[in-house]
Amino acid sequence: MTHQSHTSRSESELLALFEFSQVVNSSLDLSLILDTLLLTLMGKLLATKAIILLRHERKTFCVVNGKGVPKNFLKQKIDLSKISKQTVRVDREFSEALSAHGINRLFPIVSQEKVIGYFGAAEHSRRPIGTAERKFTETLISIAATAIEKGFSFGEIKTINRSLDEKIQQLKTLFELAKEFGGILEQDKLLKLFSLTLMGQVGTSRYAICLKEGKSIYSKISGAYLETDKVSIFDLVNSPLLSSAIPRKKKYDLLREHLAKEKIVALVPLQMQNEVKGVLCLGERLRGGIYSESDLEFIFSLSNLAFVSLENSRLFSEEIEKKKLESELLIAREIQQGLLPRTLPEINRFEISGVNISSKQVGGDYYDVIPADDGTFIIAIGDVSGKGTPASLLMANVQATVHALVPFHLPLPVATARINDLIYRNTGSDKFITFFWGVLDPGTRRFQYVNAGHNHPFVLRKDGTIERLAEGGLILGIMKTIMPYQEGSIALQSGDSVIMFTDGVSEAMDVNGVDYTEERLEEFVKRQNGKSAEAVLTEIKDEIQRHTFGAPQSDDITMVVFKAL
User: Fold this and answer.
1) 12 and 63, same structural domain?
2) Are residues 447 and 557 in the same domain?
3) Of 37, 5, 200, 225, which is closest to residue 117 (Cα–Cα)?
4) Helices then strands, each counted (H, E), the chain
5) For position 144, which CATH number holds?
6) CB 424 within 8 A of CB 479
7) Which helix (H) or strand (E) holds 365?
């Protein structure tokens, strides 16, 4: 090699070192610094595989960057047999993991006399790294070491700042929520606010509140009662606890089994006067990952704020309810008795049967069969949200509106829109109705209908097939009609039946809190093919009673069945 070519290469390397120094030292982005170091050295050494390790703890290093190695190798933690400030040749004794991936040469990254990481490369046996290349690599790494430590420190500072910002935001949120909770006495609104905060602030997918009252506890999650060890759960949870951290003792086996079944991953105590009165059971996070210590601290503060408000709401509601209950039930019962038809009209070429079984003294379900002056029949079924007098009064309004509209012979979509707008204008946002109705023409055996968010009725054909009546639109009372309701139409042949029902049938719960479900109902309905309308209705009613035997009725049960003869 001539003196001139040697000088030219030296100048080229100095220029490369200068440019590299400018890039890495002008950035605080650790990822950019590591990428620049990795790609520069791979280009200089003509290496097809290379990685960067940063120190995790003592002799353990983490693979933070790499090229030419499998993706699953990145972020792996590597234990080294020794820490060296000199370039190291890697063998299986030194690190089996590195050797297995072809990394056979390590260059230390040293800052302030401490090894903070390594650059590792695959040295080809036919082209070993020469002295000049090694010195260039070591110089380049030396330049990068300070920038790497600076970038790492900056990343830690950013993490701390993010944590502080998060804490400040959480404190602000708790302060605002304290004011909100203090001004709300309705339990449903409190729970809704609590749920929205859990989902929005922490990303909790689902939760259950287990309350301790005397010797019993109760809770609901996704409509199913959560069983727990009645003694250990309250003795165990004195501070926020991940389910995975529950001691592996026999007395907690049943608790762990139930928590795993319901996918509960964390437990947070609900306290009053330093006594655990309940436990908040948290489901998995929507965005994945485990709850951090910061998350659990925030949830602990939030849930106990909400719990105090819930207890106040409960006590207030109980006092009010005691005073109103007797008079309310008396009025509601009278309203209820006058709403439902005592007898159903006879329909030529059809048989029809209906039933309503209230879960309380009064209920919010409604059904009706109304003869029209043109020979057709209006058949309707509905389910008003809530229970008691308000639901009964709203049901009375619906019935009155339906009866008032029948003589006008309006198209069903138009009439449904009018009912919806009337309910929307005259009720609160927490009141709504699922509603299904249709016009049956006995002469043509055609049934035209509109479904306003109600359970889709079954059409049981004579050949045993099932259809669902879904055409329609939004639930009544949620919002003013913007999109017109859609009308469906079916032709019924002799032997075809239509089964209309409320969610008290499909969601009837057994002693374990398990819903009957529409899928089971559909299979059961198929087996009733060929039976009369009254027989089908009776069989479904008996089936639901068998399913719920021993459990309190959770909702009103209402059905209408009509069959073409």
Assistant:
1) yes
2) yes
3) 37
4) 13, 24
5) 3.30.450.40
6) yes
7) strand 365-371
Task: Please indicate, yes or no, if residue 332 is contained in any of the structural domains.
Answer: no
Residues 402 and 544 in one domain: yes
The answer as to whether 438 is a domain residue is: yes
The CATH number of the domain holding residue 379 is 3.60.40.10
486 lies in the same domain as 543 = yes
Residue 79 shares a structural domain with residue 115: yes
pTM of model > 0.85: no
Q: Please check whether residue 431 lies inside any domain of the structure.
A: yes
Residue-by-residue pLDDT tens, the chain, 565 positions: 454 444 555 555 666 666 666 666 667 777 888 888 888 888 878 888 899 988 887 788 899 889 988 888 888 888 888 888 888 888 887 888 888 888 888 999 888 888 888 998 988 767 788 787 888 888 888 877 877 777 776 766 666 667 666 666 666 766 666 666 666 667 677 777 777 777 777 778 777 777 766 444 445 444 344 445 444 567 777 788 888 888 887 777 777 788 888 788 888 888 777 777 778 888 888 777 788 887 888 778 777 777 777 777 777 777 777 777 667 666 666 666 667 888 899 999 999 999 988 776 666 788 999 999 999 999 999 998 876 667 777 888 888 899 999 999 999 999 999 999 998 988 877 788 999 999 999 999 999 999 999 999 999 999 999 999 999 999 998 899 999 999 999 999 999 999 999 998 999 999 998 999 999 999 999 999 999 999 999 999 999 999 999 888 878 889 999 999 9
CA–CA gap between residue 498 and residue 457 (Å, rounded): 7
Domain count, the chain: 3
Residues 138 and 216 in one domain: no
Classify residue 443 by burial, with Cβ atoms within 10 Å: 0-12, 13-18, 19+.
exposed
* Spatial distance between the Cα atoms of 201 and 298, rounded to a whole number of angstroms: 9
Domain that residue 205 falls in: 183-316
